[in-house]
Amino acid sequence: LQKSLNETFGADKYSRARKEVLTYMFSRPMQMALYFCTGMVKDETLFRHYALNVPFYTHFTSPIRRYADIVVHRLLSASLGISSPIRMEKEDIQRQAEHCNDRKMASKRVQELSADLFFCIFVRVRA
């Protein structure tokens, strides 16, 4: 897919804009990644990362960024024996994961609505 996209972008004065538009259009239909407690899911194929083509995957960034990252860091640390085991039931972890998913989807929606609003303002001002 990436090779085909690179060929489509071209090398003219519109190639950068074409790249941004096509990348956006191709990435939107992909299923959004969701946090979940692996102890609550029987089907291990759901642990797979589609784009990276790896069987097991977890996502986190700096633990100061998001609550979900802090939870992942703590769970990984405990599972590797670096820190004490987490005293939480898998149902509680799943509830936290669902809450993080809800917040992530709400944030994404607000970002999209904000972009739409500013585009409308831009068009109105330029019209």
UniProtKB/TrEMBL annotation:
| Top-level lineage group | Eukaryota
Which GO CC terms are listed, alphabetically?
Answer: P-body
Indicate the segments forming the RNB domain, all copies: 15-80
Molecular function via GO: 3'-5'-RNA exonuclease activity; RNA binding
Respond yes or no to whether keyword Nuclease is given for this record. yes
Keyword entries, A-Z: Exonuclease, Hydrolase, Nuclease
What does the record list as GO biological process? miRNA catabolic process; mRNA catabolic process
User: A single Pfam family, by name?
Assistant: RNB
List the signal peptide residues: none
- What protein am I looking at? DI3L2 exonuclease
Lineage start: Eukaryota, Metazoa, Chordata, Craniata, Vertebrata
